[in-house]
């Protein structure tokens, strides 16, 4: 399989909640108003230490998008998805950006996000940006 190389980030870091691998920096957040099956999710300009799955078309709250699930390189947990293509002109700003699900990551202060019984259930996408 080869040797696993993991990038260490510096600053306010979001990590995989399962293994602690660094995934993104607080300063790279574009929006905190995204939602997924487990509740809140954040849109990031860039993420680290992830691998992408196969691209697929998904109908989301804001229209049709080509996305790929992203996985932690160390433990293999799905941590979110990456926008490859947005088919709506108003959604083009998402292309090349990644969403990390708060349920799957720990915050810069070490906090974990736990879903409540009222957590959003449905298609994954943003309400407002």
Automatic annotation (TrEMBL):
Keyword presence, Metal-binding: yes
InterPro entries: Yippee, Yippee/Mis18/Cereblon, Yippee_fam
Top-rank taxon: Eukaryota
Residue ranges annotated for the Yippee domain, each copy included: 12-109
Alphabetical UniProt keywords: Metal-binding, Zinc
Pfam families hit by this protein: Yippee-Mis18
GO molecular function: metal ion binding
Family recorded in the similarity comment: Belongs to the yippee family.
Protein known as: Protein yippee-like
Species for this entry: Coffea arabica (Arabian coffee)
């Amino acid at each position: 399989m080869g040797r696993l190389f993991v990038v260490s980030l510096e600053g306010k870091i979001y990590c995989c909640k399962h293994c602690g691998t660094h995934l993104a920096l607080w300063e790279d957040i574009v929006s905190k108003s995204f939602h997924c099956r487990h509740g809140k999710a954040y849109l990031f300009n860039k993420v680290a230490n992830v691998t992408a799955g196969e691209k697929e078309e998904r109908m989301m709250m804001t229209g049709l998008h080509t996305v790929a699930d992203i996985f932690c390189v160390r433990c293999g947990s799905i941590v979110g998805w990456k926008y490859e293509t947005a088919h709506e002109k108003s959604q083009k700003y998402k292309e090349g950006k990644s969403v990390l699900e708060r349920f799957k990551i720990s915050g810069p202060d070490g906090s974990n996000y736990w879903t409540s019984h009222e957590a959003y259930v449905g298609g994954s996408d943003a309400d407002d940006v």
